């Protein structure tokens, strides 16, 4: 019989592959894989992005040293020391890359040759060192020199390509694996699935997994399922991840603590804390033991909702189950209390963690300092750095200084922020783009636009090590427009585009708002109209800004037309949008239209804001007998 499967992942020239096994063979024809067999066996199919260039770099000739062949492996006692070294380094990695390369050179010149497991251990050591490109290079040398390899060797190389974001080469190696007579196993395919997910191809990963199951190429284990669930969760596809979780249970694959931790963490990050708590109850009921990671995710999720009573219950439950909070647990609590302005509670947590034998780290004190800054108590935050951290021997990092710099800028003490900025190099620290952006914003906030522009040109534009992002550009554009340097803002915007930076909708919102408020409505309209050509969709802020601009220029018909258009385009107006247009109707004496819109606004659960109510009261004072205004007063102010 013949079955066909379309290889959706094929991106370039397919590798013509024939892998014989008994009376069956897999052949690639016309972008389909066919399984020819005289029996009723399931078809052997795999999806791949075979890349001819990659194959040319690796020998795919039949392996002269198959696992069952007799190769003169060494049993020389003098090799024992080298073998022991490789065994140890495969678990920890070498201290220096040169040491690993020197060992490889020695291995090549050993007579007789060391067994394949020794070479695998060397590659494993390089992976531990995250020297993936070097591992690939040595693998290539092994193939060229005819050194025997096995499935573990290929799996290691495939893993390295995935880490190097070259999943296409990894799939090419899959072809080489088969051609050498090896049968890819669950590790091989799990690695490829992880590679696809890491390159933001969850759909292709799911397709590969589905077909592996469909054609019974592997029996996925808990690691395989966990890999896909983790990939789905990282991209916010919680419902799909839960469906796969239920599927694995149905197929008899028992989830473990890692499975539950992944799902619980995902649900908490998506603010679905109650569902996450349900999974905690489920896992304990099934006898699967939660660990501190489980509870940390749940505590973080509950803190995000200020559910302090539930947090305390979880901490008590941890104590009952003899699960000790770790530094991360306490850091979550310090950060959460700090963000809510509950500094005394945050300090109590730090004191308690010290009593429990846990040592606060730089993250702990950063969270405490951030809490002080949010309360406007920046000097107290600075005291934490200069006294507490110094006394405990805790070295500050760039974030420590960023917190203080941001705190002083918000207090309009930019000169103090600049002093801290200049202190960073003396502490052996490098400012980040966020550090520079905070100083830039501080200058603009205090009206020191000349210094802001000078700082940007001299400290940021000329800094080749600094990569500007959309946030930085948005701050600069806003500052320039706010200080009426619209031409300069447009010039910088053009420079951004020329440099290859792709503006997001926030950048366009900043520029549209700045242009419209500085008398350049037509330029703002042009930017707005061209958004679809840039692959961007206006959000509620974009529409509201344009509606406000039209109202300001007396173009009420355009404003009302855009208001109707935004909902037709799938963007619902918010309370700011309604209040903006209502005030536009007031300003242009369209009181009946304002009344209709106010009815609609209230029906959608919004209400008049302070500016709208004040505008209505001012109109009533000046036009006491206007029937439409009296009707509005009766409806909304009584």
TrEMBL record:
<dbReference type="Pfam" id="PF13041">
    <property type="entry name" value="PPR_2"/>
</dbReference>
<feature type="repeat" description="PPR">
    <location>
        <begin position="397"/>
        <end position="431"/>
    </location>
</feature>
<dbReference type="InterPro" id="IPR011990">
    <property type="entry name" value="TPR-like_helical_dom_sf"/>
</dbReference>
<feature type="repeat" description="PPR">
    <location>
        <begin position="256"/>
        <end position="290"/>
    </location>
</feature>
<feature type="repeat" description="PPR">
    <location>
        <begin position="221"/>
        <end position="255"/>
    </location>
</feature>
<feature type="repeat" description="PPR">
    <location>
        <begin position="291"/>
        <end position="325"/>
    </location>
</feature>
<feature type="repeat" description="PPR">
    <location>
        <begin position="539"/>
        <end position="573"/>
    </location>
</feature>
<feature type="repeat" description="PPR">
    <location>
        <begin position="150"/>
        <end position="184"/>
    </location>
</feature>
<protein>
    <submittedName>
        <fullName>Tetratricopeptide-like helical domain-containing protein</fullName>
    </submittedName>
</protein>
<feature type="repeat" description="PPR">
    <location>
        <begin position="574"/>
        <end position="608"/>
    </location>
</feature>
<feature type="repeat" description="PPR">
    <location>
        <begin position="469"/>
        <end position="503"/>
    </location>
</feature>
<dbReference type="Pfam" id="PF01535">
    <property type="entry name" value="PPR"/>
</dbReference>
<feature type="repeat" description="PPR">
    <location>
        <begin position="326"/>
        <end position="360"/>
    </location>
</feature>
<dbReference type="GO" id="GO:0003729">
    <property type="term" value="F:mRNA binding"/>
</dbReference>
<keyword id="KW-0677">Repeat</keyword>
<feature type="repeat" description="PPR">
    <location>
        <begin position="361"/>
        <end position="396"/>
    </location>
</feature>
<feature type="repeat" description="PPR">
    <location>
        <begin position="504"/>
        <end position="538"/>
    </location>
</feature>
<dbReference type="InterPro" id="IPR002885">
    <property type="entry name" value="PPR_rpt"/>
</dbReference>
